[in-house]
Amino acid sequence: MSFSDRINNWFGSNETYEDYDVPPESENNTKVMSLVSARKEMEAQKEHKIILFEPRVFSDVKVIGNHLLNGEPAIINFQRMEEDQALRIVDFLSGIVFAQNGDIKRIGEQIFLCTPEQYRVEGDLTDSLARKYRRE
Q1: 131 SS3 class
Q2: Arithmetic mean of pLDDT, 91-108
């Protein structure tokens, strides 16, 4: 009786274990993928789009905010809203954009572009708009 058999008997374990042949792992069967490269692949496959909104009531801001929080840029046209409600929505969206290190720009008299961090907006329409409205 071997030493391990005596130990097993002492602890009340009379089970016998058989040695199984385990095939050696081949280096080609293992797949290692970096999380960074997986994320880049997913982002490359994701369709990039800009969402257009024309809110009519303040409660519409929830849908706009969810799109921004999901990393989607949005163009918001406030022409169908009262001015005080539109200002409340712009304040709310400014907070969301700020929290994501994004940007919010006025691109028309009552039209705003909100972009998350990964988007860059080049150019400035503010000077053009200011000149247009000074003439009128």
Answers
A1: helix
A2: 92
